[in-house]
Amino acid sequence: MNRIYLITGTSSGFGRALAEAVLERGGCAVLTARKPEAVSDLVDRYRDRAIGLRLDVTDDEERKSAVNAAVTRFGRIDVLVNNAGRGSLGAAEEFSSAQIRKAMEVNFFGAIEMTRAVLPTMRKQRRGHILNISSVGGRVNIGGFSLYGAAKFALEGFSEALRDEVAPLGIRVTLVEPGAFRTGFAGDSNMRPETTIDEYQPVIEPVRQYLYGNSGRQPGDPHKAALAMIQVVEAKHPPLRLLLGADAYQLMESKTREMTEELAVWRGVGESTAYADAEMRGIGGQ
Predict the structure, then answer these.
(1) What is 4-269's CATH superfamily?
(2) Domain extents for the chain?
(3) Closest-CA residue to 27 (of 281, 274, 233, 249)
(4) What is the pTM of this model?
(5) Residue 148 bears catalytic tag
(6) Catalytic pick from 135, 146, 148, 159?
(7) Nearest-angstrom CA–CA distance, 206 and 84
(8) Active site residue 152
(9) For every one of its 286 residues, what pLDDT tens digit does the chain have, with 9 covering 90 and above?
């Protein structure tokens, strides 16, 4: 079956790569971006299978319009890809309150609201797949990415629960967790803090040099990442999480070891907090 994809943030990076891969393989795609002219070449090339739409994922009317246009044109939505977002680098105290809220609106709330906008269609179909583009930074965070990581950690928690809620409806959920890829993450769209506080620079500066100094030289290929995402969509038993990149696996393995060691050290203290006659019961029968 030629699947119908609705992809947010298709002007560059993973969104653009996935749009190209879907269309090259014969699928149909609703290509959305804040500047739809950025995908006009794809729409012109695949006029029978692609439409381009303006979509700011923080705008409720534009979200509804995109979903309606997709269903009107193709009759259904098989895959929602919540890809739109922007990076940020700086210490938490250096960002303004307005910047913090803006980042969460784009990276977290936008994905939730797009999901809510598409779910009525997928419920009616009794099938669908939601790909939430997270990051290895949604599971392993470091200084400098407190704001970005907060949004991705939130997206991870949302997606875990969403998976359980929609599974009986035939809808699947996958978190995509890339490491370092050659996207626009380190480009002009990356949010810089409004202020610089000298005391934080010993932590922030090495990360800044790594991020901006390696832009365009990251090991990850967005086109290969797109093919991996399509493979997950086409899988009979897709994973909840898909790590992308050897660096992502190394970071996750290191954190798993650290967590396991810390659990062992502090388990006795944590478990000693129960009432003596307490009975352990699982949540929801688990």
Answers:
(1) NAD(P)-binding Rossmann-like Domain (3.40.50.720)
(2) 4-269
(3) 233
(4) 0.94
(5) yes
(6) 148
(7) 27
(8) yes
(9) 689 999 999 999 999 999 999 999 999 999 999 999 999 999 999 999 999 999 999 999 999 999 999 999 999 999 999 999 999 999 999 999 999 999 999 999 999 999 999 999 999 999 999 999 999 999 999 999 999 999 999 999 999 999 999 999 999 999 999 998 888 776 777 899 999 999 999 999 999 988 888 777 888 899 999 999 999 999 999 999 999 999 999 999 999 999 999 999 999 999 999 999 988 887 775 6
